[in-house]
């Protein structure tokens, strides 16, 4: 290790790591905070006594404040105000998620109860983490929303950018492979099935401040493996987009769009000898 190049490399590496470490919330702490919050809203492992609810919530609030203090400069951002505003929004997050869970239950014939949806459906978990991350993002809290969103992505296979705008209620069925880009806008009462992509027509850093992803209006159903691209693409309200459709242009309200590929099945008759 007497090679001066190695020493220089280690010095550069340490400096870079230090700068990035100081500017990033601890991933483990972030996921623990998220898990505790989800457990508080939708208890599964244990039920707190009503008298302890405020204390449990206060601990979660302190944990968030400590996470933010670990990587944000209190001189440039009012961390206390951000934490306060987030928890003021918590009741709305909860009520929105109950509405999401109800829609999933009402639309999925395999669901036996709203509680089953909440404790076992990956689509619901992905929506829950999105609504938490989106609230943090609206408060202009950096990095943390992406960390918890990517945690949900890895756990469920659903990739929802925290900056997407998704109204209530929202239904994800199965979920695996769904991608919803940062500038997507999704209206009320929308249903999306596995493998759907709401993406950009092109990936270009210069377009970062433009609307790159589609708008889906109210009461739309998008079936499996469909790809819809482009910031100017609007799916009109009350439309149905069938499976394996590829769209880069808008469709009017009440449209039914289906893939016209025809499947041919030939049945050979048994030849009797």
TrEMBL record:
InterPro entries given in the database record: LbH_SAT (IPR045304), Ser_AcTrfase_N_sf (IPR042122), Trimer_LpxA-like_sf (IPR011004)
CDD domains the record matches: LbH_SAT
SUPFAM superfamilies: Trimeric LpxA-like enzymes
One annotated GO biological process: amino acid biosynthetic process
UniProt GO molecular function: acyltransferase activity
UniProt keyword terms in alphabetical order: Acyltransferase, Amino-acid biosynthesis, Transferase
Name listed for the protein in its UniProt record: Serine O-acetyltransferase
Organism encoding this protein: Pseudarcicella hirudinis
